[in-house]
Amino acid sequence: MLGYAIMSHVTFKKLVSRMGSARTQHGAICWRERNGKVQVLLITSRRTGRWVIPKGWPEEGEKPPATAHREAAEEAGVEGKVLPVCLGVFSYVKHPDLHDALPCVVAVYPVKVRSLARNWPERGERRRKWFTPKKAAAEVEETELARILKGFDPSQLRR
Q1: C-alpha distance from residue 10 to each of 62, 64, 80, 159 (Å)
Q2: CA nearest neighbour of 67 among 81, 57, 80, 79
């Protein structure tokens, strides 16, 4: 049994359309296996330094998994393969303490990490660190994201 709900792009779009003014982003659970154990990569946010996953806005005509893949490369220097399987969604408020607070919904896609670049676009702005899924779940603030991370099991993914 999966610890997250896999949904199609159509189901995700219907879910987001019911949420009103929330903006849609796409994010990546970047993962690898080391010594038979799954690890996930978290990065720090630029503004507060809290642990998050790579995520961001889609570019014109870009499919959700492609956005997740691009954001993983830009924000964490990830080189790897994205699977077009939505692991679930989580919500958060971007800039909650500022006048331009923006409710966001993030669709999450798995990215199997082949390697990490030494230099990447946001290298000077973020840190990155490997965690077990359970430890990663304890590090993030968003309850829904924590649930997705805690239940993450790449052996359940269709490859």
Answers
A1: 15, 11, 25, 20
A2: 57
| Alpha-carbon gap, residue 151 to 155, rounded angstroms | 11
Calculate the CA 118 to chain-centre distance.
21
The closest alpha carbon to 86, from 29, 143, 141, 140, belongs to 29
User: Which is more confident, 113 or 96?
Assistant: 113
Residues comprising the chain, all counted: 159
- CATH classification of 9-88+102-153 is 3.90.79.10, yes or no? yes
Q: Please tell me whether the overall predicted TM-score, pTM, comes out greater than 0.90 for this model.
A: no
C-alpha 7, offset from chain centre: 15
52 backbone dihedrals φ, ψ, rounded to 5°: -145, 175
Q: Which residues contact 10 (CB under 8 A, 6 or more apart)?
A: none
**Tens of pLDDT along 74-107?**
999 999 999 999 999 999 887 756 666 788 899 9
Torsions phi, psi of 84, nearest 5? -80, 55
Residue ranges of the domains in the chain?
9-88+102-153
